[in-house]
Write a sequence for this structure.
């Protein structure tokens, strides 16, 4: 039996023949929502760079710390773009542990990510998953999920955690979301770069060209430009493990950490 047959997490009609970032990342994080072609790509990436799973885990840990930070700033609604397949410490779990009334809309264009999120959220009136391309800013903001759950007259935590590098044109997309957010809102992001050694091998981008999610690494200045209209909170743009680490011992050499990470406030 192929691993597609009989798997209840595969939405009917979904074409999963091409590997996807969502399922490759799920595999790297130790998840079970991936197929043989996804695992083959993940293993190719690991052969090029054995630390790739550590980069993924640290990215996920940044996501949790950033959401907790936004909660501390009083944010109670989140728009999570490129949210991926649910795994440990999903945004609604972190947020609703602090405030059960916190609202979360997940957005992804990968059918397994959306189907699995919907299954997880079926009894959760304050969170929903939207299947959409995040570059369709107007469509996302006008969706039933966003209009039902998010009040755009109040601050929103906009999350773009490892999203930007999948988008060939990124500034207009971020500017579109920024324009819809009121002061007091925040943007939290991570972004792949070639500025540091760990993911800069050109074979990483080459390998991802065999998937549906090509990557576009960006420089520090290009990532900083995504925060236009936001004021970076301390400690500014770092790498993922080094943004407000829980413990000093968690500090990682940026050359190994690999992803830019930051949080900005809209004033
Ligand atoms: C590596 S996963 C990251 C998941 C989660 N944000 C995290 O950091 O743990 C990147 C996700 O972005 C999604 N993605 C990439 N391009 C997208 C787009 N244009 N619109 C919506 N989702 C997109 C992929 O499907 C994938 O689920």
């Amino acid at each position: 039996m192929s691993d597609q047959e009989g798997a209840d997490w595969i939405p009917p009609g979904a074409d999963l023949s091409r590997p996807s970032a969502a399922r490759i990342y799920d595999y790297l994080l130790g998840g079970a929502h991936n197929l043989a072609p996804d695992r083959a790509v993940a293993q190719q990436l690991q052969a090029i760079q054995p630390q790739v799973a550590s980069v993924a885990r640290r990215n996920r840990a940044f996501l949790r710390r950033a959401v907790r930070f936004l909660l501390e700033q009083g944010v109670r609604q989140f728009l999570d773009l490129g949210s991926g397949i649910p795994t440990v410490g999903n945004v609604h779990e972190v947020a609703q542990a602090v405030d059960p009334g916190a609202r979360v809309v997940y957005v992804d264009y990968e059918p397994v990510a959306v189907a699995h999120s919907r299954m997880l959220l079926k009894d959760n009136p304050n969170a929903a998953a939207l299947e959409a391309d995040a570059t369709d800013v107007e469509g996302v903001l006008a969706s039933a999920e966003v209009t039902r759950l998010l009040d755009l007259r109040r601050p929103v935590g906009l999350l773009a955690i490892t999203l930007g590098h999948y988008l060939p044109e990124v500034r207009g997309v971020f500017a579109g979301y920024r324009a819809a957010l009121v002061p007091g809102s925040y943007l939290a992001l991570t972004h792949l770069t070639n500025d540091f050694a760990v993911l800069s091998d050109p074979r990483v981008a080459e390998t991802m060209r065999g998937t549906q999610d090509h990557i576009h690494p960006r420089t520090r200045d290009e990532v900083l430009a995504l925060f236009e209209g936001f004021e970076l909170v301390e400690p500014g743009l770092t790498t993922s493990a080094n943004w407000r680490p829980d413990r000093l011992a968690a500090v990682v050499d940026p050359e190994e950490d690999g992803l830019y990470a930051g949080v900005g406030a809209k004033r």
Observations:
- The pocket of S-adenosylmethionine is lined by residues 20-22, 25, 59-60, 63, 82-84, 107-110, 113, 133-135, 161-163, 166-167, 213 (CB under 6 Å).
- The two ends are 55 Å apart (CA to CA).
